[in-house]
Amino acid sequence: MRKVRYAIIGAGTVGLTALDIIKEQTDDYVLIQLGEWGTTCARVGCMPSKAMIHAANHFFHAKGAGAVGVKGVAGLTIDHAAVMQRVRRFRDRFVKGINAGTVETLPADKVILGAAHFVAPHRLEVNGELIEAERIIIGTGSRPVVPATWREKLGKRLLTSDTVFELETLPRRVAVVGLGVIGLELGQALSRLGVDVIGFEASDTLSGLRYPEASAKLVECMSSEFAIYLNQSVDVDVDAHCAKVRRGDAIFEVDAVLVTMGRTPNIDQLGLENLNVALNDLGMPPFNPETMQVADLPVFIAGDASGYRPILHEAGDEGKIAALNAVGFPHVQSIPRKTPLGISFIEPGAAYFGDRFDALDPAKIEVAAFDLHCNNGRAIVMDQDHGLLCLFADSASGQLLGGELVMPQAEHLAHLLAWCVQQRMTVAQILQMPFYHPVLEEAVASVLKQLNAKLKTDGVS
Ligand SMILES: Cc1cc2nc3c(=O)[nH]c(=O)nc-3n(C[C@H](O)[C@H](O)[C@H](O)COP(=O)(O)OP(=O)(O)OC[C@H]3O[C@@H](n4cnc5c(N)ncnc54)[C@H](O)[C@@H]3O)c2cc1C
C-alpha cells in the first residue's frame, strides 16, 4: 500500500489551489485526477461561455447600430463555425496555460489518473491501488444534471454545458431547459447568435434572483429577446425529424435541447459512506464552511463538490482554506468567508451580493428599489435604461446588507457594493463617497438615497 501525507482528489480549481500550498510544505503528496485536465472553468465553464457571449453581444450590438445612425447593418450575418472555432481557440489557450503552470511540472509519481474513492477514512482506492493518506482534500467538482431518461431519449439532440462548446456549427432551433445562470447566459448568447431559442424554467424566477421585483424585471428584459416559459416542468421526446419539448398540452419542436437544470456535486461515487459519518439525504457529509473540514476528520471538502457556493472564486478560496487546514491539522482554523457575490453575464446584467433577500427578517430591514427606466441619464443615452436596483439595509444600524441588480454593468456595480457590505458600511457612509456624472453609479446613489430616507424615518435616527 502506498502511504502519503496528503492526497488531493480532483485537479480543478480547488485541487490546483490546494496543491500550490501543499507543495510548499512537502513533496509527500499525490494528486488524483479523473478525466480531462484543465479545470471546469477553463474547459467547459466560465471561459468558453464568456468567449461565446462576447461574440454574441458583438453581433447583437452591430445589428442594432442602425439606431445610432450606422448604415449598412441590415445585411450583417455571422459565421457560426468561425464563432465556435474562436471559442475553442480561447478554451485551448486557457487549458494550455493551466496545464503548463501546474500538472506538466509535476513529477510522474505524484499524479495518479483515475477515480478515487474512500474505502476507510484514511484510505483511498484508485485503479485497484490502495493509498493511505494522513490528510485528504476532496475537490471533485460537479456535473450537469440530466435525467437518465432524457439522455436516452434525446441522444445526439441533447446538449449540456459539457458539449455545447464542441459544436462545429449551431442548430437552427434550441430549447434551453433550466434558466439559472448557466441556462440564461447560454440561452441569450445562442439567441443573439441567431439561433431560434425557447427557454423553459420550472420556477418563477430567472438566474436565481430572489427579490420578486428584480426577478420580474429580469423576466421582462429577457422575454424581449426570446420566448420564456416559467412555472412549469417540461418533458422531452424525439422523432425522426426533431426533438420535442412538452409543456402541459403544448409541444415545441426544436433541433436540440440544451439541458441546464443545475449541477450536482461529484460525491456519489466517492464512497463517502466509508468515512463513518452520517450523510444527509443528498449523500453529503457534515462540513464546516469556514474550515472546510468534514466532521472532525482530517478530510476537507471544497468547491463545487461541497455544493456550498459553487462558483469559481469561492472554489479558489475553499481550496486554500482546505489546504491550510489540512496542513495545520489537528489545529483547524475558522477562516471567515467573503461577502457572497454572484453574477450572470447577460445583458442587462443580473447580480446579487451580500445577504439573500429571502434569508432576511422583513421586520428588521428596510428595502429600496429603483427602476432604471427614465431615471438615469447615462442609461438612457446608451439606450439601455431597462433594469432595477434593489438594496436591503439593517433597520437598526443602517448597514447595507445586500441587494440584487438587473442593469447594464451589474457585474461591476455589484462588486463595489459587495465590497461596501464586507466593509460593514452604512448606507449613509456609502453616500459620502463620490458619484460622478453622468454614470450608472448615479442609479446606485438614487437607490441609496431612497434607502437612507427610509432608514431615517423608520430605523436609525
Ligand atoms: C458553463 C459554466 C459557466 C460557468 N461560469 C462561471 C462564471 O462565469 N463565474 C464563476 O464564478 N463560475 C462559473 N462557473 C462555475 C465554475 O466553473 C465552478 O464553480 C468551478 O470551476 C468549480 O471548481 P472545482 O475545483 O470545484 O471543480 P472542477 O474544476 O470541476 O474540478 C474537479 C475535478 O475533479 C475530477 N474528479 C471528479 N471525480 C473524481 C474522482 N472520484 N477522483 C478523481 N478526480 C475526480 C473532475 O473530473 C474534475 O477534473 C461556470 C460553470 C459552468 C459549467
Describe the structure.
The chain has 461 residues and is α/β, with parallel strands linked by helices. The chain has three domains: 2-143 and 264-328, FAD/NAD(P)-binding domain (3-Layer(bba) Sandwich), CATH 3.50.50.60; 148-261, FAD/NAD(P)-binding domain; 341-454, FAD/NAD-linked reductase, C-terminal dimerisation domain (Enolase-like, domain 1). Helices cover 32% and strands 24% of the residues. The chain has helices at residues 13-25, 40-44, 46-63, 80-101, 148-154, 181-192, 212-223, 312-328, 377-381, 410-422, 427-431, 441-458; strands at residues 2-9, 29-33, 111-113, 116-120, 123-126, 129-138, 142-144, 158-159, 173-177, 196-200, 227-229, 235-238, 243-247, 250-254, 256-259, 263-265, 299-301, 341-344, 349-354, 365-371, 388-394, 400-407. Strands 1, 2, 3, 4, 5, 6 and 17 form a seven-stranded mixed β-sheet that branches. β5 (123-126) and β6 (129-138) form a beta hairpin. α1 runs parallel beside α8 (312-328), α3 packs antiparallel against α4 and α3 runs parallel beside α6 (181-192). The radius of gyration is 24 Å and the shape is globular. The N and C termini lie far apart (68 Å). The model has no long low-confidence stretch (mean pLDDT 97). Bound molecules: flavin-adenine dinucleotide. Flavin-adenine dinucleotide binds at residues 9-14, 32-35, 39-41, 44-46, 49, 115-116, 139-141, 161, 182, 266, 269-270, 303-305, 310-313, 315, 345.
